[in-house]
Design goal:
This protein has 475 residues and is an alpha/beta fold. The protein has 13 helices and 23 strands. Helices cover 26% and strands 23% of the residues.
Length: 475
């Protein structure tokens, strides 16, 4: 088989995108000891009690002997072949004196509680217990996910929400629902009403994620409901980080990856799994990889759109002063790998932040960094010009008046410096000195001596002022 065929075969085996199987953890099985207040399954000497005012659907797998049972007003017992109950008044000596075992209230189990779900890439991984770690918003089923309630179980879940809970498919008691009409019919059945309750409804039949680079979960609209079920722990690190889609700040590291259309979400997730998490030193690391949408802000203030990137959240099990150090080391290795092989993986760049305060960035290829920088710079300049124009049109910003610039001819005619060899410019007419007739008409004031004291020189007019004549001062 050729190399090309081998590559195509691998791509066909891999899931197309980041849609997952999300499995509900709690059940209402009779044989589950955690469902009983005494922490054990009722035996032959025990009384069984269900809360009278609670609705319940209980799955029973085997035959049981008890001394009595109190049933709820509205409920059901789902009995598999060979399962049932028998009453023995004398009890079972091996069971002891007997107690009243009460089935726990499951009315408070919510769809939007992240701790009540596990996720896996494939259905086989789900059965084998190979689960994926996710941020809180993605721990709850996303619109592209297949929801699974284990085949040999019953349950009760509150799906109250401000919106319809939309997923790709829902599997209940071994039956998979992929159309809303079939699911609605089941939800209207006695079992469906007991298993699903709340103010919202459940919808299936979505197209799933068809983007090989991954899809945004878009559970942010339910963030308040999700985070209401999360208790955040106190942190010991210097600079706690806030991952997108997570309800709590964390001590660890976050790698943000800028990707291209050639990026494959699932193949890269498996690359991180096999290249790094398979190493002994990183086996305790929890890795949550997701595609997120981040709002862009011009100068850190003005929003001008959103961009998508890949977020890799890394958490380690260290505590005290060493908390987050192992996650930071892995983040550095991932960024280094991007620097060396990013162009072959459909990655432009990667940068990380650590709760220790460290951060770094590496670009896959100098040319990519130069082009990206030039494009970003151009966008910033265009955005600034657009903002100024909009503010000017609305009268918020006014352009300053520019001083008028005289023409060259006017400047030439009005200059105070005469042309070389041209007539001397006196500036203005002085009736006292510019006309000799006026000087002669005042004989008492300006006599012949005064006239003789006025002379023309190359630098202008020179005269003696009789008021400040030195002879007068001497007199």
């Amino acid at each position: 088989m050729s190399l090309r065929h081998n590559i195509l075969l691998v791509l066909c085996v891999l899931p197309f995108a980041n849609a997952l199987y999300k499995q509900w953890i709690p059940d209402t099985n009779f044989e589950n000891a955690t469902n009983w207040d005494k922490g054990s399954i009722p035996c032959g000497s025990d009384q069984v009690a269900f809360l009278a005012q609670r609705k319940i659907s209980v799955y029973v797998e085997t035959a049981h002997t008890i001394t009595g049972m109190s049933l709820p007003m509205d409920g059901e017992l789902i009995l598999v072949s060979g399962a049932g109950f028998s009453v023995q008044q004398s009890g079972d000596p091996s069971c002891g004196s007997g107690v009243t075992a009460e089935f726990k209230d499951c009315e408070t189990l919510h769809w939007f509680d992240p701790s009540l779900w596990v996720a896996a890439t494939t259905f086989d991984d789900l059965h084998q217990g190979t689960y994926q770690f996710s941020v809180h918003e993605e721990s709850v089923p996303c619109q592209f996910d297949d929801v699974v309630f284990r085949e040999a179980t019953s349950f009760r879940v509150d799906i109250s929400s401000n919106d319809v809970c939309s997923v790709k498919s829902v599997s209940v008691l071994g039956k998979k629902f992929t159309s809303s009409s079939e699911l609605s019919q089941y939800l209207s059945s006695p079992s469906g009403k007991l298993q699903f309750h709340g103010s919202s409804s459940l919808s299936v039949g979505g197209p799933g994620c068809s983007d090989v680079t991954g899809c945004v979960c878009d559970n942010s609209r339910n963030r308040d409901k999700i985070c209401a079920n999360v208790i955040c722990e106190s942190l010991d690190c210097k600079n706690p980080l806030q991952p997108v889609g997570h309800c709590c700040s964390v001590c660890g590291a976050i790698v943000n990856i800028q990707f291209t259309s050639n990026f494959n979400f699932e193949s890269y997730r498996q690359r991180l799994q096999h290249l790094f998490l398979s190493l002994h030193k990183y086996e305790s690391i929890q890795l949550a990889m997701s595609k997120v949408s981040k709002e862009q802000r011009l100068l850190g203030v003005i929003p001008f759109g959103a961009t998508q990137e890949i977020q890799v959240l890394l958490l380690d099990q260290n505590t005290g002063q060493d908390v987050g150090k192992l996650a930071e080391a892995l983040a550095r290795d991932i960024v280094k790998d991007v620097h060396n092989h990013g162009s072959n993986l459909g990655i432009n760049s990667a940068e990380f932040q650590a709760s220790s305060g460290a951060s770094s960035s590496e670009v896959a290829g100098n040319s990519a960094g130069v082009v990206a920088g030039a494009v970003l710079g151009s966008l910033v300049v265009v955005a600034l010009l657009a903002i100024v124009y909009v503010l000017y049109r609305h009268g918020i910003v006014k352009m300053p008046r520019l001083p008028s610039i005289p023409s060259l001819s006017n400047w030439k005619n009005n200059t105070d410096i005469g042309e070389l060899g041209g007539p001397l410019d006196h500036g203005f007419d002085n009736p006292m000195f510019d006309k000799s007739t006026m000087l002669q008409s005042e004989p008492g004031l300006y006599g012949t001596e005064t006239m003789n004291s006025i002379s023309l020189t190359q630098s202008g007019v020179h005269f003696v002022n009789p008021v400040y004549d030195e002879s007068d001062f001497n007199a």
